[in-house]
Write a structure and sequence with these properties.
This protein is 40% helix and 12% strand. The chain is of the alpha/beta class. The N terminus is likely disordered. Bound molecules: flavin mononucleotide.
Length: 387
């Protein structure tokens, strides 16, 4: 009797569980009379999910859908958001947290940044704003954070060439260039030379898309996969690439401890633990779950290589949970794309909000410095009621 009651309570909770990309925190009550096709005042937005709300009502549905969609039934995209709430904090009270704001800075591949989060590479900036990726370059400069620009023109997925984007940098601004390669060494060498000449500070090779993607929601609008060919991207090819450039080649899209170990063996300077925002292989675990696997099976990797991670990060606490697992820097994708509907100002605002939430959450966790965060600040026994 008791067991069946528990089962029915649990299934009721699951049935009622909302898709958390736009949690109900009262935005409809306050801004719901904003006419469709126009934007509320930037000052009225209070957190990263608000940008999705604003962009959904403002953009043509096809443009919004390209940003929002995930692969297949979008289970990984949902899990990326929910996973953070399966693990609750173990805060320490009675500490002096007043120095926290001065401890946000970090280095990524030896470059200095104002915070341990960055703008993940996302295609089709022009879906959100006529100035597309230029706003992300400028917004990243204003916030002192890293922008990893996605592959650029002649790809149809960008409105700018690498030369145009890198020319928009502020003096001294560091930008990394994401690449998809077609594994033709002559053509790929040419692409890499071009990125070197344009001024990329590092290359980020995406390795999770060797077979394209299966995006039902986007396919309805003809805005499907970014890469639909089968590509023979192998470790041998990575070794070849390393010989043709002195730029670091980071590997983005690691989703298993096996691949993380191989990346160390092949001398990668950093890896991005990422399931591509749940946009490629539905059923891929979230970054947090992959990191737990690394902690469990090969914790030495955390000291051997820089680990970055992204997927579903919407709050300061989400960044902190990934930092607690030893990540050096955390990527944010969709919120910056949605914020770009406001232009550079929107991009800047996301960075300000995230810095402010980081300080609040780290302070309430009892950290005197952000550098103190470690895995003991989270209870890693999953709590299935919240997420
Ligand atoms: C609209 C969109 C386009 C993307 N395009 C690329 C891309 O061209 N290359 C790539 O490596 N990742 C791409 N990604 C994945 C992001 O780099 C990142 O892994 C993901 O967005 C993180 O999840 P989040 O959006 O929940 O923050 C894209 C993501 C989105 C939302």
């Amino acid at each position: 009797m008791r067991a069946s009651l528990l089962v029915s309570l649990a299934s009721g909770a699951l049935a009622a569980r909302p898709f958390l990309s736009e949690p109900d925190t009262g935005i409809d009550a306050v801004l719901g009379d904003t006419p469709e096709g126009s934007l509320p005042d930037l000052d009225d937005l209070v957190g990263l999910p608000d940008f999705e709300w604003a962009a959904r009502r403002y953009l043509p549905l096809a443009n919004y859908t390209y940003y929002q969609n995930g692969a297949a039934g979008e289970w990984s995209a949902r899990n990326n958001l929910e996973v953070f709430y399966r693990y609750l904090w173990r805060a320490r009270q009675m500490t002096d947290v007043t120095g926290l704001p001065d401890t946000l800075q970090t280095t990524i591949l030896g470059h200095n940044f104002s915070a341990p989060f960055f703008i993940s590479p996302c295609a089709r900036g022009a879906n959100g704003h006529v100035d597309g990726e230029l706003n992300l370059v400028r917004g990243a400069a204003a916030g002192g954070i890293l922008y990893i620009t996605h592959r650029v023109k002649p790809s149809a997925y960008s409105s700018y060439t690498a030369e145009e984007l890198f020319a928009a940098r502020e003096e001294g601004q560091v930008i990394f260039q994401q690449l998809y390669l077609n594994t033709n060494i002559t053509e790929d060498t040419e692409t890499i030379r071009r990125m070197e000449n344009a001024g990329a500070d590092a290359l980020v090779l995406t390795i999770d898309s060797s077979a394209g993607s299966n995006r039902h929601r986007a396919a309805r609008f003809g805005a499907g996969s970014a890469n639909t060919q089968l590509t023979p991207l192998t470790w041998d090819y990575y070794d070849q690439l390393k010989n043709i450039t002195s730029l670091p080649i980071v590997l983005k899209g690691v989703t298993s401890v096996e691949t993380a170990k191989k990346a160390v063996e092949h001398g990668a300077p950093a890896i991005v633990i990422s399931n591509h925002g749940g946009r490629n292989l539905d059923g891929s675990p979230s970054a947090l779950e992959i990191l737990l696997e690394i902690h469990d099976q090969a914790p030495e990797i955390l000291d051997q290589i820089e680990i970055w991670a992204d997927g579903g990060v919407r709050y300061g606490g989400d960044v902190l949970k990934l930092l607690a697992l030893g990540v050096r820097a955390v990527g944010i994708g969709r919120p910056y794309m949605f914020a770009n509907v406001y232009g550079t100002e929107g991009v800047e605002r996301v960075t300000e909000m995230m810095k402010s939430e980081l300080i609040i959450d780290a302070g309430n966790l009892g950290l005197e410095s952000l550098k103190e965060i470690n895995s003991s600040y989270v209870n890693w026994t999953p709590n299935h009621w919240l997420g």
